[in-house]
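ok here's D-aminoacyl-tRNA deacylase:
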Amino acid sequence: MKAVLQRVAEARVVVAGETVGQIGQGLLVLVCAERGDAEGQADKLLAKILKLRIFSDEAGKMNRSVQDLDGAGKQGGLLIVSQFTLAADVSGGNRPSFTDAAAPDEGRRLYDYFVAQALALHPMVQTGQFAADMQVHLVNDGPVTIPLHIDPAA
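and the structure:
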């Protein structure tokens, strides 16, 4: 499973002119299920995201996670957006191939599982809309952008 995290001051997802998900300070999580992924990869990816220390402490060092933005338990938001294009392979030319992405039904199942687990473990979760044409608006904080990959064999 792959994800790209963007530390944001705020972010929102718009579908057909309507905002479907919105957060303040937190993480925009673009996520992609790959062929061979299962719940184990989703669990490992989510655990890493929730514990990743990419928010600044009082000294300006990246020592805080989305679960503890201020050292006193303030939690940031997660805006989770499905993005199968993270599985793009351009090694064979200039047109991306997406054969490494999970099949649409399996991708939706794993995305839904990932979101359900996030909702169970974190109080501030919003989402995009699976397989929709989305406009993602964000104010990148830093900028800080982190790619993550949990191997399907993991």
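+1. Residues 15 and 132 are 7 Å apart (CA to CA).
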